[in-house]
Amino acid sequence: MLLYFEIVILSNIYFDMNKHIKKYYPSVILFFLFINNGFVFQSQQKETLPEVDLNIIFRTIEAGIDKNDISLFSDYFSDNTYLSLRRSSSGYFSNNQVHHVLKDFLSVNQNISFRFNKINIDAKRPYGTGLYVFTNKGRRDSAVIYVSLTKIDEFWKISQISIN
Amino acid sequence: MAKNKRKQKIINYSILVVIIIFLLQIFSIPYIIKSQDSDWSNSLEEKIQVIEFEVLGLFNSRVESLSETNSKLLTELGKLHTDSEELSPNFFVTLENPEFSSYSIQIYDVDTNLVAWNETAMIDEYLSNHFRYGSGEAFFRETGLYTILSIRTNLSLDSKTYYCSISNAFEKQYYLQNEYYTRLSFTEELSELFNTRFDISYTAQAQHSRDGRVHSFDLLNNFGNKVGIVDVQKPSKDYELNTLRTNLNSITSIIVMLLALLIYLKYYYLYSELKYKFLKFFVIVFSVLGFRSLIFFLNIPSQFLDNDLLNASYFSSVFAFGMVRSPLEFFITAVAFLIVCVSSYYMILSYLKEKKKYISTKKNKFQFLILSFLLLIFYLFLLRGFSASVNSIVFDSSLRYFRDPALLPELPAILMHLNLLLLGFCAVLFGTIILIVILNFLDRIYDKNKFTFYGISFFCLQLFALLFDVLQNNPQGTDLSRSVFVIFTFVIAYLILQKKSDGLQNILLFAFTASFMSINLLSFYNSELERESLKLTAYEIVRPNENYLEYTVFQTLNEALAEKDIPGRFNAGNINYAQFAFKIWSRSLLQKEAIPSQVAILDEKGNLMGKYNFEFPKQVEENFNFEEAQESIQIIRKNIGNSQSVVIDGIVRIYDENEFLGYVEVSVLFNPNQLSYNEMPPFLTTSLASYNTTVDLDKLRIFDFHNGRLVNSVSNLVLSEEIISKIIEENFSEHDEKWMTLELNGEKNLFYVLKNDFDGLFRIITVVLEEKNISWNLYDFFKVFFIQTLFILLLVLAYTVVFFYRNRRFQFTFRTQLLFAFILLSMVPSILLAVYYKDLTQEKNDSAIFYKLSKRADGIESYLQNNYNENMDANALFEKAKSDLGISFSLFDPDRLKYSSEQGYYDVGLLENYIDPVAYKNLSYDGLKECVINRKIENYEYSSYYTYVNYGDKKQIVEVSNLFNSILLPLSDIELDVILFGTYSLVAILIGIFSTLLANQISRPIRKLTGATKSVASGDLSIEINGNWKGEIKELTDGFNSMVKDLKRSQGQLAEMERESAWKEMAKQVAHEIKNPLTPMKLSIQQLMIAHDDNSPKFNSIFDKVTKTIIGQIDILKNIASEFSNFARMPSVELTTVDPKEVIQEVANLFSDEKIELETSLTSLDVKVKADLDQLKRALVNMVRNSMQAGAEKIILSLQDENDYCFIRISDDGKGIPAEVTEKIFDKDFTTKIDGMGIGLSMARRFINSINGEISVEKSSSAGTTIMLRLPKFSS
């Protein structure tokens, strides 16, 4: 709105031929509304939901991996998430990076089936493990997934994802 | 016009064609897919045949290559003499031929003893087993870690028989996750190539698969014998159809993009006809951003490329809906924004050139003020956004911009450097544009002295920027970066507004400012990241817990079970099971995470067949749990004694169909009392080093406290009680952590302290780093600056090429030539010096390595000599030597390994059991006493020192290397590269700066002379060049000034003489002409007088006649006078249609080098007048010159039009014209100047009047004068 306001005033003052410029106002307004409504400047990060039921969190993660939809559980990424991926990247990544690194990995190693066959919510760092069956360029393979959570500021966050 | 219409037609047709192709494609995709689906079984058969054919082709070509090399080898060997005493060294010499370096070659004598071998030896320990293959026949064999294709040939050299074995590796059986490892796998190569799974059995006994989903075929060697079986998984229909669909969609994306480009091209012509610049700018912005969005949604280029430039781990952000999700996507987005910023820049520049005269009112002042304030807020947000973006570049990336030792880093890093520069360029450019607009607005409002105006503006800007940061919760960047950004953008804005700088100079200003700003911020955020890395180190130490380790055990066994050849290994004889265990370990998370672990292979009775142990405690390494094993993986946990350490065992039974073969047991140690930080040889390094590449691990100190007591540390320092109590007792934050800065040994250190409770154990991990290791480093700065400067140079090159293309000539001014000459003369010796210094340092490093390793070897020899006893166990002595001396070494007797303190690496086959062949040859045959050989394991380079050691009656060769012994060098090769890089980048920059200054200084008088010459050519003879020069330049300028004065004087004299001569001539003519009618007049009067005196009767007729004569002659005299008056008019004018804007611009350019501020203010409309171009120019030059001579510092040439006239005004801030002479200044011969001729203004007025114009003094006071020329407009 700031930019829009500026452009309107600018147009009035900058050029003394107002009558010639007025017919272009709608396009100008539309364009800057489009920009200001977040096309360029809006981040995709949303506020983390204060989910406390660990089982629900693990099932959400499971669904996200199963459907290859990272956005289902991207709220649970912490600022430094440890990722260890099969024959691929390994290390601590920011929450921006984790999103895309994991997305790229799961798009290449496409899910056939995944379920957590063990979830332990009583441990100090709750974790889940499960068998991930996937295809990679038409070749079927499997890996074991390990996901652990940690509490940061009253919210549960993913501290580690290992797919090996 | 016709050309444009033709182009439009072509574009329209192209659009039509592309649309038709697009529609055809869209509608044909389902049919293509359906046709592939229905014809699948035929096409599958075809695919399989093609795959088989191509695989056999690849295999056969490798066999042929091996066979050819073997033939070459035999030919070379055949040339050797048969004197056996000389043969062996000659064998080594032959094998050193670089042509054979990529093959493993061994030569055996008739008793299968190894006689010679080369560096890439994969010794055949079971040579005799392979005699079943014919001489020259290719076959596969295993060395434990490799599957290799070999050819053994019998070699006869006169009476002696030798066996020559040449091999080429097909499969590397182990897998390491680090930067040194190179993957080698024929199977994986085929899988990648054909997009389907391959399994190859490298044995003639293998059988075809009975699985209907798999197609099997034999591998035949060069003798037509079966040597293996290839099992290829038949391509899956779903996958193939999906791939086809994806490929067709990719084509659709390209067509859509092409269509968009054509549409943009079509509307380009409409765009070029737009009248208003603001609209043009709006169209550009919309088009560029729209195109960028389009290619993003079409997934271009991601769907076509598959390389590191699209790897999100190098850089990724969710900003802008993922349009910066990889380095390449970031680059494309940055280029789009750059185009928008550059368009804004040129729009503003062109607006400035056409500035209208502005009338200030209260309402407008208020509006401008509000607008300026809003723009200022936008400017400050821009700066914040820029800083936040650099923050993201550091924190959302795994690249470490300052730690990469390579002079030119990898491609993703290079691209991110470019992205950083582009980002900075956009920020600086856009910031400058905003400031130009603000300053332009404020200039209209406040009519103040320029110095005051800019000074106050700058101060206010800095103040607002500071306030903006203070008011934020989380300000981005630093105070320095904020201030510097404001300074640079303000200075550039000032230069553009006041000095009218443009072209390449501006581009370079923006580019270098952007580079400096971006690196400054990069450095700041990198230090933040380094601080953060202390936290990550602590996290990493506490990350492994029992549950995670259980997962690693499970994962390792799961991975092992998935290996097809596991049962075969149990059945095969002569297997090195330690290697087998190492292979399982290397492919697992255990290696990746450097976890203390062991992999053991047990037979069906539970007896140990082989194991690989990595830092696993010896007291439990043989505690196997095979009784617990079942068909599925079983996990067992056991405590070790009374300690808190837990061993997590995983065990599984191995079957071959229903036959029970044995067990694989994986054990890991979880010890909460131990820091999970293991020193490994570099070629095995993984986890801890790989994640924490921000700081050198060598510089970190780690302390582990349990229940308030220090139990473990990685440090060469001791903490005082005071510091320990601060660590333990001071309050932790709610996140169980704290940051502290404390002094250790007089140095400030940053402490990160993390509290971690574990089963009642109160644990504190402290990670410490010296502050000076986090500080900004000059070399780091110049390392990045060098890379960005290369990009800027490319930009200059591009600009030069475009300039040449437009102007068809290279314009290398004298100044530019001087600059290049200085740079060349300075850089060449600098580069030579750098190369020399690098060579010298490398030599010194080599000498240091030699010295330090030799000292260690001497120490070992002394120890063995002093402690050797015939009765003692030799291995025990060697172990004691290692333990007492702390030196890792190996002994060879003479070519075979006898002992190594790192036996594990030899057992598993990572290191060969034979001595390096070059070392052996040097010591055994060339008579050298010692030598250093540069060796390689994977791609890790190290140096090994060899010499003989004598102890007791033994004479053996000892090897001491820096692979297992840490050798500290004053300056490693990498550090040297970084220092040289940084130093010489600084040198290059200083050379550039000083060369520019010097070139400017030297060429200044030449430029002034050039300008002055142009002024003289335009008729301005009042010009004078002033400067404090000496020598020839002073003589030149004095000579020039003198010449101009003489010219002016001569011109004046000439004009005077001409005037005099003209007057004389005219007077002569006048006299002559006047005389003619006067004579008859006199005669007539005389005649009348005579008639009167004589009272002639004809007096009346004579009177009439005389009067008529006199009147006639008077008429003649009058005509004569008119003629001469017409002749005396000014020279004739040559009237043409003149654009006054161009004339004013030309006049302004003539005074560009003068020490006055000359502005132009031109109307935007097209105005033409009818005038003599030269005289109009001369008139304006004369008036500007008059203003300068009246002491003006600022002169404004303005042009306005009103109704049928255009008005040219020359306004100055000189001393003004006294009121009493205002009316006279246009008079001929009137001047107030001592040396004036008084004709300039009068000539100007005469000329202006002649073209129906008017010239007058519009206003004049002590504040300045305005002269107005009113000229009638010309309309065609």
Radius of gyration of chain A (Å): 23 Å
User: What is the count of distinct domains of chain B?
Assistant: 7
User: Largest interface, and how many residues on either side?
Assistant: A-B, 62 and 74 residues
Distance between the termini of chain A: 49 Å
Q: Count the strands of chain A?
A: 6
Q: Which assembly state applies to the chains in this document?
A: heterodimer
Strand content of chain B: 15-25%
Average pLDDT for all residues of chain B: 84
Q: What summary fits the major beta sheet of chain B?
A: 5 strands, antiparallel
Looking at the structure, the CATH topology of the largest domain in chain A is Nuclear Transport Factor 2, Chain: A
The percentage helix of chain A is 25-40%
Q: What's the N-to-C terminus distance of chain B? A: 21 Å
Unreliable stretches of chain B? 688-692
Note the total helix count of chain A.
5
CATH uppermost class of the largest domain in chain A: Alpha Beta
As a percent range, the share of strand residues of chain A is 35-45%
- Spatial strand order of the main sheet of chain B: 2-1-5-4-3
> What would you call the structural class of chain B?
alpha+beta
**Shape label of chain A:** globular
> What would you report as the Rg of chain B, rounded to the nearest angstrom?
47 Å
Strand-and-helix sequence of chain A, N→C?
Answer: HHHHEEHEEEE
